[in-house]
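User: Okay, second chain of the day. Same drill as before: sequence in, structure tokens out.
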Amino acid sequence: MDSNFLWGGASAANQYEGGYNLDGRGLSINDVELGAGHGKIREIHEYVHKDTYYPSHIATDFYHHYQEDIDLMAEMGFKCFRMSIAWSRIFPNGDDLECNEAGLEFYDKIFDELIKYGIEPIVTLHHFELPLSLVKKYGGMEKSKIS
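Assistant: Same drill. Structure tokens below.
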């Protein structure tokens, strides 16, 4: 295999992180979205409904298991991991003036763990997970204020 080939994996925060309401993270649009499928239209709520299953709330729970998951990536010989950063974990409302330090610490620990195994982090800054407060405030990505 070419030594420049980046063998690895990829995911999006809303698909794997979980911990949707921990350590100061704000809600994203994905946190109020029910899964869609063949014959089932995507349903998005305005708030989290009690006793309703939202796939992003737990996901694969990378938030609590990132060390084990990265260890498995290393076992498979990954050289890189493309991941997204949940906007609402860093800026809970999307337009906060201060960063959520707990969110930054979470990603810092992930980067340290990846580097420990020689896995290059490749970051996507936005992967379709707009903070819910910006959706409510501006109507989503269709507004030039956000995009």
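The helical segments are 13-16, 55-58, 62-75, 87-90, 101-116, 132-138.

User: Thanks, on to the next one.
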